[in-house]
C-alpha cells in the first residue's frame, strides 16, 4: 500500500538531482603527494627499487674489486717466482757486489712483467735492488720470516715510493734457494693498490648503465601501479581511508535510518541493520536480487525503479516509512540507487519529547540569563519565581532562611522558620502566605523533608499530601477547592549549605507534575541557589566593607575655627571602594583638608584607605609642608605595594598592589587667608568665591601615589572669608554614560546655582544633581567655607634678641589677656610665653616674634630664625635650668614645633574651659617661677 496524502508527503516528487561531488574526488592529488595512499606506496616502491639497484651495483663493484686484487696477487707471485728462479740468481747474491749485478736485471724484469716493483733482499731483509737507488740498503717493508723458512708470502703492505705511485701495495715475497735448498735471499714483486683498481675501473660504465636501466624499468612499473592505485583511492591518505571505512560501518549500522544500495542489474548491494529491521530482510540479503527478497510489490517496484523519490510514505506491514531515493551515479550509465527509510510511526512521540526538551532548555537558558544579575537576594528569588511561572508551574513561591536574607551564613537551627521572599503566577486566586511573612513549617511538610533530605519531593496529588494539609488545614482546603492539585518542592542548596526552598504548584487545567519534572526543577533550583548564594555573600561582604569603611571615615567634625565643613559619602552598590576624606586641625588655628581615592573595591581597598588616612594624620601631626606630606605618603604607598606583592608572591597568589591611589592635600590658615594645596592624580578642586563666582584654582596635576620619584607641585591661594572650597572624588563627575568634562560642567553649574548656601545645603544640592541612582563607584564630597580670625583676636609683636626683654613679653601678654577678658589664665600664659621667648632668645636666631591667637582655645607662638628644635627633658634637683619646656608641657593642653621657610615656630595651646590651666592658683605659679633663679625673670 502506498500512502501519498498531503499529511505525510512533505514536498512533491522532484526530478533526480546529482549529489555533491565527494571532496576526495575533487582533489585527486599526485603520485608525489606523501599524504595520499598512492603517493606513499609510490615513494616506498621507488625507495625499495633504488636501494635494490644500488645494492646490486655495489655488490658488482665489490666483486670486480675483489677479482682485481686476486689478479694482482697472482701477477705479483708469478713475477716474484720467475725472477727468483732465473739463472744466475744464486751466484749474483753470493757475488761481491750483488746490487751491481741484480739491479739492472730487476728493473728489466719489472718492466717486462708489468709489476710496479721487483725487489731483491738478503736474508736480513736489506734491499739489494729497488727502482729508486737511494732506497737500496734500507730495510725491506713487509713480512720476510715465512719466506726465510722457505714459504711464499702474499700480503698488502706499504713502503717507499715506486714509479707507479706510493701507498699500499699487493706484494709477494718468495725465497731464493741454492742447490741444497738453503735460502740465500728473497725476491718481492708487487703492484700498488691504485694500479689494482685500474683493473676493474673499465667495468664501471657497464655496471652503472645496467643499474640505470634496471632503475628506469622498475620506476616505470611502479608508476603504472601507483597511478592505478591513485585512481581507486581518489588521492586519500591511509588514515582517511581507514577513517572512511570505519565511519562507513559506524554510520550504516548505528544510524536510526534504513539505508539500501542497489545495483543497476537489480541486485541488493548493501542493507544496514535498521533497513533489515524495518523491512524484515534476512541476514544474507546483500548480494541477492531484489525480487527474491519477498518484499511487498510497492517496495519492490520502488527499489527497481530508476526514478528519484523525495519524502514519500510507504506502508511496510504495520509501519509507515518515509522514503528517499537517489541514483548512485547521477548522469552516468552505471545504474544503481541509494534508498533511505525512516520510521515515521515513532516520529510523533520523538517530536513531542524533543519539543518539551527544547522548551526546557530555552527556559533554563533564560533562567541563567535573568537570575543573579542584581546581586540582590530578594530580587534573585523573585527572578526564579518569574522564570518558572507560568511556563513550568502555575504558581511559584520561594521561601528563604532569615540568615540568608540578612547576608549571614545559614545554620540548621533556623530551618523551621523561613520567610517568604518571592511569589509569582496567580497567587490572588490562591490562599498563599504573603510576601515577607515568616512561615514555621512542621517536620512532616514537603518543605522540611526536602531541606532535611537535600533533594526535591514530588506531590503529584495534593489531596493525598497529608503533611502539606496539616501545615494549615484551612488554607490547604481552600487551595484544593480552587484547583491546586500538584506540588514540587525543591531545596535551594549552594556549597552544600541549605538556603531555603522553592515551591512549584500546578492548578487546574494544567497536568500534574511527573517524575521527570523533578530533574528540571532540580536544575532550575541549582542555578537559582548559586545566584542567591552569590547575592548573599556579596551582601555580607558589602555590609562588612561598608561597616569597615564608615568606621575608618570621620564620624564627626573636629573642633576648629578655620572652616565650616559639610560632607557626603555614598558607597558603590557593587562593592565599596577606597574613597576617603579628612579634616585635620593643625597648630596655629590652621586646618588641613585631605581627599583621596584608592584603586579597586572591596575589603582590600577599604583597609588600604584606612592605612592611608592614618598615614596622612601622622604626617600632618609632624606639621610638614603640603608637598612633603604627599612625598611621604607616596613613599608609604610604595612600601605598602612592595610588601603586599612580596607576601602574595610567596603564597603563590597574584599581588593586589595599591599603585594608582590619588590624594589632594590642602592647608588653610585663617589668620592670613592663605591656602596651600597639591594633588597627586586627584581631580582638581572647585572654588566658589563669596560673590558666587565658580572657578577652578588651577592646582598643578602631579603623578598618582605609588609611582615614586616624582615631585609634587603646590599652589598658593588667597581665600576671602566666605569662600567655599569643594573637594570630591571622580565617582561624582565620571560615570559610564557621562564624560568627566560633562560632569565637571554640571558640578560648576550646580554650585553656581547654589549661591550663598551653607556647606550642608551645597552638599545636598550637588548630590541631588549629580549623584546616580545606582552608583558604580564610591562618591566622596566635602564642602568647606572659610572663616578668618578677627584682627582683634590676634596679637603679634617682635621681641629684641635680649634676655632682658622677657619681662616686657610678660607685660605685653598680661595686657593682651586683660583686653580679651582672660585674666584668670594670665599667670599660666605668662609662664608659657616667657619660657618660650627665653628659649628663642638664648638658643635661636633673630628675629624673634610672639603671636597670640584667641579662638576656641588660646594659642601662644614664638618664632625665630633657627631650625634647631628644642626637646623636653627632666632636670635634676641640682640643675640650674632645663625645666622650661617641662613646665610648658605641664600647663599647656598641647605644644610642639613646626618649621617654616625662615626658621621654626614653637607653639602651645590652652583650653579655655575648666581644666588644669584655668584652675591653677597663684601660689603654685609663683613657686614655680622662683625655681628658675634667673634675674631676668
Automatic annotation (TrEMBL):
Residues 376-542 form the GAF domain. Residues 9-23 have a biased composition (Low complexity). This is SpoIIE family protein phosphatase. The chain crosses the membrane at residues 37-62. It comes from Streptomyces bullii. Keywords: ATP-binding, Cell membrane, Hydrolase, Kinase, Membrane, Nucleotide-binding, Phosphoprotein, Transferase, Transmembrane, Transmembrane helix, Two-component regulatory system. CDD domains: HATPase_RsbW-like, PAS. It is a multi-pass membrane protein. Residues 560-786 form the PPM-type phosphatase domain. Residues 1-31 are annotated as: Disordered. Residues 246-311 form the PAS domain. It is found in: Cell membrane. It holds the Pfam family GAF. SUPFAM superfamilies: GAF domain-like (SSF55781), PP2C-like (SSF81606), PYP-like sensor domain (PAS domain) (SSF55785), Sensory domain-like (SSF103190).
